[in-house]
Amino acid sequence: MCYENGMHYNVGDSFRNGSFKLTCRESGIYVEGCYMQNSFNDLLMSGESRIENGKRHECEIIGPGKVRYVVKMLGCNHEGQQYSTGQMWTHQHVRYQCKNDGTLLVLGCIDEGLFIELGRDLLMEGMVHRCYQVNTTVFYHKFACERSSLAECVSQSMHRRARRYAKRVVA
């Protein structure tokens, strides 16, 4: 006989406790499997996983006699949109790709079909295109520059920004 949550069970009896299907054995209570989220009958056996509705349901064995039920979203969620693994999209000039582990990879920046790799600057037809990251934020800047080299254009833009910041601090 087994005793669980104030109830007595005979050897061989199976019962539900939360997300788990338990069975009373001579050696004690054994976890048979996990009931799937929002389900009364769908059962995953211990160690089994199943993909349904864009989610991976796992009845994970974490040690002797220990089982954990886990539901993981597949793909990525960005700005309220769901993306599948490997899918690429652009949001506010930044090009993303959904990685296998559900994280986002920033590929670079896009403007009118022109792709600039993250961390690169480009001078083309008198326009500078910059795609860079500061901490966790990615920036895309585009500005006109008549200088002869990209380095001069970037330096000029940084110098202008520093002067603007100094004026704000002094004011």
Automatic annotation (TrEMBL):
Name of the protein described by the UniProt record: Abnormal cell migration protein 18-like fibronectin type I domain-containing protein
Organism encoding this protein: Caenorhabditis briggsae
A Pfam family it matches: Fn1_2
Residue ranges of every copy of the Abnormal cell migration protein 18-like fibronectin type I domain listed in the record: 2-62, 75-137
Domain of life where this protein originates: Eukaryota
